[in-house]
Amino acid sequence: MTAEKGVPQQLPLGISLRDDATFANFYLAHADPNLQVVEALQRFAEGGGGDTALYLWGEAGSGVSHLLQSACLHAEANRRSFQYLPLAELLDMDPAPILDGLEQLELVCIDDLHRLEQQPHWQTALFHLYNRVRDGGGQLLLGARQSPRGLDIALADLRSRLQWGLIYQLQPLNDRDKIAALRRRSRLRGFDLPEDVAQYILHRAPRGTRALFLCLEQLDRASLMAKRKITIPFVKEVLGI
């Protein structure tokens, strides 16, 4: 978070953005419908368009968290103050001190909104934060696995607020694109992943893109340590699949 006079400092919550969560690292296929989503997020992170809220949703592993963190890094590059809050890591905490003063920031990013179900204290706290951010001229970037209408939110006022602003659905990659994304990510890491190895990983490892990229990182580290090429036998040995 960019620190400015009068702006609250980032809380020591152990939350950090992934270095690899950038727009450049997000795989887009030819004529990909997600291109419109990425462009909208870039504009929003820059403060363009005049919209108060942008809600991004997509199934697990589709890249919602990646793009929300990418938007935060993009905001930082544009010298904008921001805070990223993944609710999956925070729901056991009291929301009041976490959300207090965030309306002074230019961008507040809240991930994992689907975790709000059965969380009345957090629902109330986020409703009030939404109003404070809107009244203060800031922006809210929201991410979830369901659409706003698909969330089981007991607080009707919050459910209504979440349907305001821009709403985008992130389309998951098909198998062909996942293989292409794995091979592209390997080249960005400085090695070439053979297509047959990529296919082997895809059909035996967890199929979400983030999980696949974590497998790739593990293989890269193991390959460097062992000074061995990444082959199917090596994948079996390292990943146990």
How would you describe this structure in keywords?
241 residues; DNA replication; DnaA_dom; 9 helices; 2 domains; Rossmann fold; disordered N terminus; alpha/beta; five-stranded parallel β-sheet; Chromosome_initiator_DnaA-like; DnaA family protein; elongated; Helicase, Ruva Protein, domain 3; P-loop_NTPase
Strand content bin: 5-15%
Largest sheet at a glance?
5 strands, parallel
CATH architecture of the largest domain: 3-Layer(aba) Sandwich
Q: How are strands sequenced across the largest beta sheet?
A: 2-3-4-1-5
The SS-based structural class is: alpha/beta
**How many DSSP E strands?**
5
Number of helices: 9
Rg (CA only): 19 Å
Number of domains: 2
| Percentage of residues assigned to helices | 40-55%
Output the CATH class name of the largest domain: Alpha Beta
| Distance, first to last CA | 39 Å
Overall 3D geometry?
Answer: elongated
Unreliable stretches: 2-12
Give me the CATH superfamily of the largest domain: P-loop containing nucleotide triphosphate hydrolases
CATH fold description of the largest domain: Rossmann fold
Order of helices and strands: HEHEHEHEHEHHHH
- How would you state the average pLDDT, rounded? 89
